[in-house]
Amino acid sequence: MRARVRKILLAESSLLVRQQILRFCKQKRFQVHPICKERKSHGEFHHLHSRLLQYPEKFMEYYRMRIDTFNYILNNISKHIEKNTRNQKTPIDAVERLALTIRFLATGNSFRSLAFSYRIGIATVAKITREVCAALWTSLVSKHLNRKTNEEFIKIADEFYSKWGFPNCIGSIDGKHIRCKRPPHSGSMFFNYKHFFSIVLQGVASADYKFTAIEVGAYGKQSDGGIFEASTLHKLIETGEYEIPEERNLPGTEIAAPFVMLGDEAYPLRKYLLRPYSKTNLNNDSELFNTMLSKSRKSIECAFGIITNKWRLLTKSIETDIYGAELFVKTICLLHNIIIDKEGVCMQTLMQVQQTIPINMNRQRQYNRSSEAATTIRNNFKEYFVQKNVIFT
Description:
Radius of gyration: 26 Å
Strand order of the largest sheet: 3-2-1-6-7
Helix content: 40-55%
Low-confidence stretches: none
Mean pLDDT: 87
Number of helices: 16
Distance between the termini: 95 Å
Order of helices and strands: HHHHHHHHHEEEHHEEEEHHHHH
């Protein structure tokens, strides 16, 4: 009995010791670390930002946008990210918060690396980047990534025809795998066919490489077609809530055709979504259609290429939880649209991206049962290109 009591007392005392050790370890040695107190004298922002403003080309290189675009974003979100002064402490102001977040998205540097260079705590860096991205999304998504109206879709279709030669097209659609840290207890749900963990960005792009619709967060193991059919965009189209215009005649003909999106072989054939003809038993007319579709789909491929080239976070594994990764990717897509609206497309970047786009990716979709109406619509577009005697340069 005494031995049993002695064991219980020893167990209780060791538990108390462990709790005291943990409590001691959790105690902060500093309210603000001495290194962080040097933020205004040695921090990267305080002795570099003002100099960059004097050299616009260097500002562009550092922040991936012009000074006026940076100020436009700042003016729209500053009231949402500014902090009040408390306990006689000077908070980090809005411009530094935005600069830190843009630099994180542009470089993909770790929170720890940014914490040392900006002289800010690691937890503070993580908090600031999320807060700024959330404020940016809330404040500017309705202006630069809003759901398109009937008239806007018609304008997009006219631009597609003028630039790419494909009539009645309201966008090209594709998916992009974004590397992420494997969420706990997720098994193989996020493990994709390229053999890394990812979430999927599904995007629809207009003729000028801007995103007209995005959806982020699908499992990496899903196919593009499966992601589309499970997406909000698909549900909106099927229920008629997506304002796609009524059909109109193809240019210079009496062939009536609906407005459509363009996908690759991984997507299903629908009345509002065209995919290439199967490469088996492909005749000249079908090959002509496939070539025109592939050519016009470069808009979404280029859009993905531009954001990857500019925002280097997308080239690395995003070391946050899934919700943080989704927020950062959405913000990058929004910044992409803002920059194009304010500055246009950088032709040098576009030319670099176009040289890296893979040609004729053969991704077949199994069990693709298309309706007779969808097949007829695709055949009508094929006949249009044959009648027009399209010549490729």
